[in-house]
Amino acid sequence: MKEKVAFMIFFAIVFTVNLVVNIYIFSRTRSVFPAGNAAWWGAAILFWLLAFAYVIGRFAERAGPVWLAEPFVKLGSWWMGAMLYLTLIFLFADILRGLNGLFNISEIMRFNWISSKGKTAVLTIYSLTAVILAIGYFNAKFPTVRKETFQISKNVPEGYQKVVLVSDIHLGMMIANGRLNRLVNLVNKENADIVLLAGDIFDEDLGPVIQKNMGDLLKNLQAKQGVYAVLGNHEFYGNVSAAHEYLKNHKITVLRDSVVVLPNGITIVGREDITGERMNGKSRKPIEELLTGIDLENPVFMLDHQPYKLGEVAAHRVDLQVSGHTHHG
Known about the structure:
Helices cover 52% and strands 9% of the residues. The chain is of the alpha/beta class. It has two domains: 140 residues, no CATH class; 166 residues, 4-Layer Sandwich (Purple Acid Phosphatase, chain A, domain 2). Helix 4 crosses helix 5.
């Protein structure tokens, strides 16, 4: 019951924010809609269908029809990315217009959104957003390996450990078998001692993952000391228990406020994502409790999906925390 109430509150907040942001974007975009009553309203309907495509897709995913879900989720996901940049750029332009009205900075910024100059500005902003999204898509489709070296002032087994971190894969409708297979091969080429999955492995609903049998690819991940995962906010938005079970059934050790000590002495601490606390009202374990009984003379790695309260982690004898969530490598 608590989960349903939390989900409804979360949904209401997301719906409201989505509505307000899209009203703002619509108010700037409508100047480029085609002339004529029917054509203008047709363009407006298409805009709002796009604005709520993600919500429609997610409802279809949970309640059917399923065939409707995938195209709407994909379309809506693209639009959600566009929303961020459109809002920021339109806001920046409006701030410049406001400052220009006060201080007469430049004639270029003296325009109304429904004027011909305003229409040109709208089309330019949409074109810039399209370029940004294309770059983001390319980066996501062809991930690269970023290498970092850390010195730890403790006894490290064999003097060196290679740890591969993967986060925010979002398997589901948007990310399917082809891209997952490339990612698995990329990870396995590193010949890692440990592989860590820092949450948001799934994009909410597990249905597409099960249908496409992505678990058979996930279990191909290889590491000498094992593959360990924590869950992220998107697992909580879907079915967190089912996500946990699915990973466990495909040879991935899931750490939910739990600890594993490897044969070589390294300790991996996996924290429950803070979303669980917000949605279920159940506090996650404090760091002190998780570290109780751990030999802190050996290396301690902490895995937490969101880089939350890092100062608190730094106050303890944790040698390395790895996180995801920000989609920034």
